[in-house]
Write a structure and sequence with these properties.
- The complex is a heterodimer of chains A (about 180) and B (about 425).
- Chain A has helices at about 25-35, 45-55, 60-70, 75-85, 105-110, 110-125, 165-175, and strands spanning about 95-100, 135-140, 155, 160.
- Chain A is α+β, with helices and mostly antiparallel strands and about 180 residues long.
- Chain A folds into two domains: about 5-85, Orthogonal Bundle (Arc Repressor Mutant, subunit A); about 95-175, Glutaredoxin.
- In chain A, strand 3 and strand 4 (about 160) form a beta hairpin.
- In chain A, helix 2 (about 45-55) crosses helix 3 (about 60-70) and helix 3 (about 60-70) crosses helix 4 (about 75-85).
- Chain B has 18 helices and eleven strands.
- In chain B, strands 6-5-11-8-9 form a five-stranded mixed β-sheet.
- The chains are: A alpha+beta (about 180), B alpha/beta (about 425).
- Chains A and B meet through helix 2, helix 4 and helix 5 of A and strand 3, strand 5, strand 11 and helix 14 of B.
- The structure holds flavin mononucleotide and FE2/S2 (inorganic) cluster.
- Flavin mononucleotide binds next to strand 4 and helix 17 of chain B.
- FE2/S2 (inorganic) cluster binds next to helix 5 of chain A.
């Protein structure tokens, strides 16, 4: 690791920034940019990718990553590095919902494997896959920080705790 | 006097809407901050109080917080930063989430005071991305604090500035490592930096930076209110204060407990309702998934403070107490831990990137009945060659469970290898 700590800013953005995403998303990204020193626009890359991913139905295309790069004056490769490093960015199409079952140690001790096997059997998806009807993408995730109510599951943006296979089923059936 | 429970980070927990500014005010919240602003307290005095309190970092390493703050070149020119580590990702740990959800203002006050002491006018709270609800709570509290003129520019006419922002993670355990966290705020992959230089010299954006855990920072206002001596007396010498313990796994009532450091483990276990189903206690991982496992019998004679747990051969870590009952297959538990570290290694250092994969694959093969007799020594050997050879402590965190599980439960691994994947523990 070098001691370099300068932003990777490119000299001239390759694309015009106005017209990227929507005015609302641009405003939200700008609000994040304002939290950091002016020369460190790239600090907003994570929130920007999060916003853009949500806008795009839960996943990021290469084009969208390029747009984020242009918007934040970053080389595209620096954005790809971030998007591929962090687990919450999806780079392939996903279902209408995302379901992440925690399978770390406290949840394991409290039956998370039963949840995983149940979803695999009943919905025919393995971790990382999306149901044939596109309803949800199934993920096995690491500790969600909810271990005192294990097993824990993240459905969209909501935690569900102390789940049994039946309770998880009910949650899934309620999804459109 | 030693107070029993919930006297520091959870002191608002009994209130209705404990997260609201009014609730926090009602227990004396922000009084310390306002006093400091008014009296222009000498930062050195505050740091002395923290040193006296023997508050040790609650994020895992247990480094004395007062000492850490004293490393900051407070009066050197230029921007300095205070960064809070709310990336809580160590399996078994679920306490910072509850501080953010139920007492966010105390964290804000703690960060403001920290900023004042180290000469930082800007702070960032790095919260893991999955914490949607806690992020909303913290953001709402920030808004309240700004509107009430408790943070911002020239706070209450004191001439003191303090701006505080949330930075959200996006799913990477390694960003809990403090320098990976800084890289992440800088908009990069979360890969730890080589140290030295330490963050107090070269931190965020290359500027002097102090990084503390959520619980460490949220403890500060109460230490100043009640005094360093009081805090020290809540715990043990060199182990000041109460601490949050997340007791999880095979217990009747898993929960967070804020109890004095030095509380006997057996009392903590009783608070959690004892071992689930009245079973015998087999083992405990006393400080989050990264620390060595301790056999149940030894744990029952151990007290919950940094030094006592070190004597029992493990570490207090983040205070996550993972309880394992009789009948649990230790090969399976270790395979789960190994999978975690293999998945979360950032890939920067060869011993960790390759070694964690080896550990996970060999354990998987043993579980699947394809283990070879030499695999057990292979595991020990690989673990021994990761520990101490990496930039950050994730390598050690992956190695220590393997070494300790083999030390105490080697017969279970041998049995499984000899019996084509059958578990000794589950058969018994
Ligand atoms: C792999 C790894 C993961 C870590 N995860 C966390 C974490 O989630 N939260 C945390 O506060 N500290 C974590 N730490 C410890 C931090 O590096 C750092 O020591 C701590 O935030 C300092 O704060 P404290 O002195 O208040 O404990 C982690 C360390 C390592 C090596
Ligand atoms: S182990 Fe599942 S939430 Fe922590």
């Amino acid at each position: 690791m070098s001691l370099r700590s300068a932003p990777l800013a490119v000299e001239a953005p390759e694309r015009a920034r106005d017209g990227l995403f929507t005015p609302e998303i641009r405003a939200q990204i700008d609000a994040h940019v304002a939290k950091y020193p002016p020369e460190w626009k790239q600090s907003a890359v994570m929130p920007a990718l999060t916003l853009v991913q949500e806008w795009n139905g839960g996943w990021l295309t290469r084009e969208l990553m390029d747009d984020v790069a242009a918007y934040l004056d970053m080389p595209p490769v620096a954005v790809y590095e971030v998007a591929t490093f962090y687990g919450m960015y999806d780079l392939e199409p996903v279902g209408r919902h995302k379901i992440g079952v925690c399978n770390s140690v406290s949840c394991l001790l409290c039956g998370s494997e039963d949840l995983i096997h149940h979803v695999e059997r009943k919905y025919g998806v393995r971790p990382g896959e999306t149901t044939a009807d596109g309803r949800f993408t199934f993920k096995e995730v690491e500790c969600l920080g909810a271990c005192r109510h294990a097993p824990a599951v993240l459905v969209g943006k909501t935690y569900h705790e102390c789940l049994t296979p039946e309770a998880l089923d009910k949650l899934i059936e309620e999804l459109d | 006097m030693v107070e029993d429970q919930n006297s520091v980070c959870f002191r608002t927990l009994h209130l209705k809407e404990p997260w609201a500014l009014a609730s926090y005010r009602s227990v004396g919240g922000y009084a310390q901050w306002e006093k400091i602003l008014k009296e222009k307290t000498d930062p050195a005095k505050i740091i002395d109080e923290l040193k006296l309190s023997a508050l040790r970092g609650r994020g895992g390493a247990g480094f004395p917080t007062g000492l850490k703050w004293s490393f900051m070149p407070r009066s050197a020119p230029g921007q300095k930063y205070i960064v809070c580590n709310s990336d809580e990702g160590e399996p078994g740990t679920c306490k910072d989430r509850d501080i953010l959800r139920y007492n966010p203002h105390q964290l804000i006050e703690g960060m403001a005071i920290a900023g004042y002491c180290i000469g930082a006018t800007v702070g960032y709270n790095y919260i893991r991305g999955e914490f949607y609800e806690p992020i909303d709570r913290f953001e709402a509290a920030l808004k309240e604090a700004y509107e009430a003129g408790l943070i911002g520019k020239d706070i209450q006419g004191s001439g003191v500035d303090f701006d505080l922002y949330t930075h959200c993670g996006a799913g990477a355990y390694i960003c809990g490592e403090e320098t990976a966290l800084l890289e992440s705020i800088e908009g990069k992959k979360g890969q730890p930096r080589f140290k030295p230089p330490f963050p107090a010299q070269f931190g965020l954006y290359g500027r002097p930076t102090t990084i503390n855990n959520t619980e460490s920072l949220a403890s500060v206002p109460v230490i100043l209110e009640k005094g360093g001596q009081w805090f020290l007396e809540q715990g043990r010498p060199n182990n000041g204060g109460p601490k949050l313990f997340s007791v999880t796994g095979h217990v009747e009532r898993p929960d967070n407990f804020e109890v004095p450091l030095g509380t006997p483990f057996k009392d903590l276990l009783a608070m959690a309702g004892g071992v689930k189903g009245g079973k015998r206690l087999k083992a405990v991982i006393p400080g989050g998934s990264s620390v060595p496992v301790v056999p149940g019998d030894l744990m029952l004679q151990t007290d919950m403070d940094y030094d006592s747990i070190a004597k029992a051969g493990s570490m207090l870590g983040s205070g996550a107490v993972i309880v394992i009952a009789e009948g649990t297959c230790m090969v399976k538990v270790l395979a789960n831990l190994a999978h975690f570290y293999a998945h979360e290694s950032c890939g920067q250092c060869t011993p960790c990137r390759e070694g964690t994969g080896w550990l996970a694959r060999v354990l998987h093969r043993i579980l699947n009945g394809q283990g070879r007799p030499q695999d057990i020594d292979l595991l020990d050997g690989v673990a021994g060659r990761i520990g101490g050879r990496t930039i950050c402590a994730l390598g050690d965190a992956a190695a220590m469970p393997v070494q300790s599980f083999l030390q105490h439960y080697r017969h279970e691994f041998e049995y499984m290898v000899e019996h084509g994947g059958r578990s000794l523990a589950e058969a018994a």
